[in-house]
Amino acid sequence: MKVFINPGHDIKYDSGAVHYDTNGNVDLRECDVAAKIGTAVQKYLEAAGCESYLMQSDNLAPTPAGRSDYDDRQGMTVTETANEWGADIFVSIHCNAASGTARGTEVECYNRMSNGGNLAQCIQSQLINSIDTVDRGVKEMTDLLVLRYTDMPAVLVETAFIDNDDDMLVLVEHWDDIARAIARGVTDYEQSNN
Questions:
Q1: Residue 159 contacts by C-beta under 8 Å, 6 or more apart in sequence?
Q2: Pairing mode, if any, of strands 2-7 and 89-96?
Q3: Element (H, E) at 190
């Protein structure tokens, strides 16, 4: 199976959500957490016999004006690359953020009654069984570019709330457990479709 892994946001252009220490300084960025987890997911999937492609960029999908809203980045977008590569599934990895009080893990898909919904449920189940988190379930999100413009079953994993102190500790201390759970969810999905 060919798995396209998209750690959310962009190290250079877009940090995504952040966590602040007690002095008000940023001490954890979503793009860094997603990159670390995504790289580990790739390692575990390849060990399980999957072919993988990892791409971290906030240049997600073509716009009416062209390939990118960024003049210096007119190359292939994330969704175009996944489609051209011929991925069987697409997994985007993120951290959620809200008011600092929300907690938990959720996996988002375009349609819960599709293969993407099945993939989302497989990953969500593994995450809930692997880390101490609140089960926020599988949610339909039809407005997310990575779910709308991919030609294969696609999910966006919201691993935990980076702006919540308890969830931030889960991200820092259990990032490898999260990566293993995502990889197991992918292989569970593959087995359920055979």
A1: 33, 37, 93, 94, 95, 96, 105, 127, 171, 178
A2: parallel
A3: helix 175-192
Contact by Cβ (8 Å): 154, 147: yes
Contact 53, 82 (CB under 8 A): yes
Give the three-state DSSP class for 4.
Answer: strand
Strands (E) located in 12-168? 18-20, 26-29, 51-54, 89-96, 105-109, 135-140, 154-161
* pTM for the whole structure: 0.94
- Sheet containing strand 105-109, strands side by side: 51-54, 2-7, 89-96, 154-161, 105-109, 135-140
Q: List all residues 6 or more positions away from 87 whose beta carbon is below 8 Å from its beta carbon.
A: 2, 3, 4, 53, 150, 152
- Does the domain made of 2-192 have the CATH classification 3.40.1190.20? no
Cα–Cα distance between 31 and 75 in angstroms, integer?
20
What does the alpha-carbon distance between residue 88 and residue 2 come to, in Å, rounded to a whole number? Answer: 5
Q: Each residue of 134-173: pLDDT tens digit? A: 999 999 999 999 999 999 999 999 999 999 999 999 999 9
Residue type, 68: S
Helix (H) or strand (E) run with residue 62 in it:
none
